[in-house]
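We modelled each protein-ligand pair independently. The example shown here corresponds to the zinc ion entry; the chain sequence is given first, followed by the ligand as SMILES.
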Amino acid sequence: MFESVPTLLENLVLGRSIERRLNFAKLLPHWLLARIQASEFQQTVCRAGEHSSYYRRRFAAQGIETRRVRLPADLGDFYTTAADLRALPVDDFLCARPQAGFETTGTTARNKRVYFSNEEVHDIGFEGAVGLWNLGLRPEDRVVDAFDYAFWNAGITLLHSLNAIGCFHVIASKLPPEEFYERVREYRFNVLIVDTAWLVTLTEIAERRGVWPVKFILSGSENLAEATRAWIERVWAAKVYQAYGQTESLGATGIECPAQRGYHLNEFNFLFELRQPNAEGWGELVFTTLTRKVMPLIRYRSNDITRLLDDDCGCPLACMRRIDKIAGRADEIISCGMGMISPWIFETWLSGCPGLADDWQVAVTQPGVRDRLLLRLERSAGAPPAGEIEAELTRRLEQRFPYYYKNWRMGMYEIGFEFLERGSLRPAGVRRKLRRLLDERIPTPARQPLSAAVETLGSEFQSQD
Ligand SMILES: [Zn+2]
């Protein structure tokens, strides 16, 4: 019976009203949502096993009978990975004729392709509208969208969200921030929807040249350090919210609410799991698409490490669980002389240090017998001399991470600094997620496997914080 619930709700109760949808979310008990999800999960697994050659092959190889699958746990250690999407033709995943295609931004040369129907893009856009309404967006607002549109889904999804709300909007696309500032200031847009790293440069310009009244800013695509968020909010005198997503989820995995404490998961369109959570609950986010007919993904490993939050945020989306900020990429956890390190550690260490711009990258190298952490840091305009920044960073390491500081003083690893011009790590026009942590040592078989790294991640956080 549960398979007909979403359609009935859609047709009889909710219609296309964002407000009704939001009020309904407030009343929906999580147990009912979970039952609906389970029913849709079963249908998705059966459909994929029947129509996608990839899933048919993989299910057969693992002896999985799709009709017997009720819950994700019934699939054992079956997962779909980014490597599968990269290595195989996209046609292998398709269950129906696609109408829209996007590519993932990535850190490798080969991008993943993900295909959809127009209806799927439209529906995800509508769910996005519910999240935007929850943040206060209304038809009378004026929105500018500065997302990159080339091969990327974020802008198209947003366009459908803005159409659903019916507000005035302009697609600026990802112009150089100076040009953007010049061209949009006359419009007095009161809502800015932008890319995270790009927002930092725009805010520097606005800090120098002046701001206009803004209701809120929504940024997506990469984690925003809390110190940076606080600065941007100060400059614009407006709240900055974050959305979280991947192209594989059509950018709609989760969105913050006014509480700014984690992302509400889009549990109407996805079933989420945490893979191999440790004692503190940190694990890799895994999702199954529940409503996609063209290219369903079953237990797709997002590669993002997070945990579920269980405190009450008090907003209408409470029935959709929240996850914490992404603590790192599962493949960006490195075991080295410093300990088990993830990008989160460096974000915490470097954030708010005078003279540093927002972009940085850390490479683990091994010039001699021990590991050397090479911090590639971009300096902001008018930064103090390198020596002063180094001294400040040393002081912060001792204060924020005494354990790592002690290991460094004991000679377990070396630290090197490389100061770079602003924009060196992310050349203009290149839209790639900046890889924060690199292992540039010669590989040895003694490296700790990923699963062990994920297991110890949370305790590292707890003990070092
Ligand atoms: Zn909330």
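The chain has 14 helices and 21 strands.
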